[in-house]
Design goal:
The protein is mostly beta strands. It has strands at 15-19, 22-24, 29-39, 44-50, 56-63, 70-74, 81-87, 96-109, 115-127, 133-134, 136-139, 141-145, 154-162, 168-175. Strand 6 (70-74) and strand 7 (81-87) form a beta hairpin. It is elongated and about 90 Å long.
Amino acid sequence: DSNTATITIIFGDAVEIIIDNATGKPGETVTTGVTLKNHPNISGGYLYIKYDPAGLTFQDGQITAGEWESGTVEEPDTPGTILMELSGSPGALPANEEETRLGELNFGIKDDASGEYDLTFSETGLYDDNNEVISTVNTDGKITVDANTAAEIEIESCIQRADDTGYIDIKFIGKDAEN
């Protein structure tokens, strides 16, 4: 919407956690990233992310940054919820004043999906090297489904013929053309 503005206010040393937006068509798989901005050393934490299982299917995910003793991305028993869980020793994810892509989430788009599907943080907890809670500001993402399934064909020729009833029969001949 061109009349919508997003304003993010970061207080003090808060780490910004962002779910990237993605776009796909029904039947496709899309990947969205989870990014951290301006973070100190991180030794562990968890992120719960909600999605709408009516239009999306969580396929898998992976942690792409850091050296963790244990790092998992899974869908617990609650459909529509993803848990990213990290456990490591001090400095498992070194400090970065810019951006770090923490992980990726892969979603299948259901055949009857259309519109936008929100990806929202329901709970987060990150811990520094002293096992202190790190303040976070969370930016939710979305997956936009482009349900326009109109086929494109390449036309090589077109034949028009009028029969004795006055109807015109038009036949398109080309790649992938059926009629």
